[in-house]
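Progress against Task 2.4 (sequence-to-structure conversion) is shown through the following example record, which the project officer requested during the mid-term review.
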Amino acid sequence: MKPTRRARLLRAEFTKFRTVRGWMIALCAAAVVFVFVSFLSASESRYAVPPVPVGPGGEAVSDTYMFVHQILAGDGTVTTRVTSLSGAQDSLNTTPLAPWAKAGIILEPDTRQGTAYAAVLVTGSHGVQMQYNYTHDSPGLPGTAGPSSPRWLRLTRTGDVITGYDSADGVRWTQIGTARLTSLPRTVQVGLFVTSPLYFPAGEEIGIPSAATASFDHTSVQGDLPSRSWAGDPVTARSYPSPQSAAAWRQRSPGAFTITGSGDVAPLVGDILSPQWAGASVVNGTIFALLIMIVLATLFATAEYRRGLVRTTFAATPRRGRVLAAKAAVAGSLAFASGATATAIAEVITRHVLASNGNYLFPQSASDLARIIIGTGLLLGLAAALAVALGMMLRRSVLAVAASVGLLILPGILGAQSGNWLMRFTPTAAFAIQATLPRSNLVNSDYTPPNGYFPISPLASLAVLAAYTAVALAAGTWLLRHRDA
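Structure tokens generated for the chain above:
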């Protein structure tokens, strides 16, 4: 087909859409409703939070633990053996050992939240790890620490370079990794720490507070120690429960300690903050706009069948698949433009309203903002094209609208309550393009779609919707070719 013919066909379909005043009004109304619903959702969220600590890389972090420490001046080495790590009872809950409960050695310039640090530690179910500055980790020995499988840990400092080691017997040591803490002062804090994040029971999407208790022995510090006495302090940050409710330590002998702690030392994700987000507000607006786009795109496809004009269209363009493609392109392009524009406006408004109401907002990069704006436009555009294909196949507006809602919206409602697979393998997966909360492999967090988590990556989510749309267009083309108008 020559380019001029394609252009003429597209122009003809656009003219059909443009000349129906009600459709143009509905297209604009979809954008207005999008922004208005997003604004209302943001206005209802009033959840003031204390200041959130920021890590060395500018990321929001959780930084809460029980710290038993000494001052180290210059280079030195800290060694200990962890003989047990178990779930513990605090004043609020008794929970099993959390997978990312941590106990080990940590070095940091001071005890301010968000400070740079390096640590070597045992975990509830991720073995030994060396972690530093909240986002970096290297695995060590697998398995859990216990009386029959103690874990020896060692952390050495040479200038700005911190090296972590582990051992199963205290004789043969293996280097796990190194960290360079830029501009590390000569005097630092070193010692033992324990923390335990939210615990997620099997099948549950809401975490509950947890605490952990660890036993240490054979603890020694080599280096210049201004004071050889140990001090125990709960390092506090935004967490629940507060560390004072689950923080304790006891020195059983000169090198042996029992320490209980709660919280986390990791990137901050949404579990412990407000259940309302800028992302959730925009998602709510998108759903209402999507409903309007579905109806609009379906009518664009079925109106000619209802009026009997489709025979004229097919007489002018005998290759019916091209008519379907042109209708899908026009509906998809207009939906994209309306959705992207509305998203850009809604993002500005909702973030301002949420911040004014005291909500904490995670930092948003320019690339994330562009992804959300363009991705939401593509979501609505692909959805409109899918609705057009269903309309041309089913020929009846009610049936096509029901089928579109069943594919694009209903799985999201069911998936939030029954299982992750619906959010992976149905067109609803495309809402993941709007995911706003940070993710981390160092934090356990079940997906919770209303809060911005999805069990699929943003780009993969659009690919799922695009695949459904492509299949629907192919099926629609086949049907149009093999049945009467």
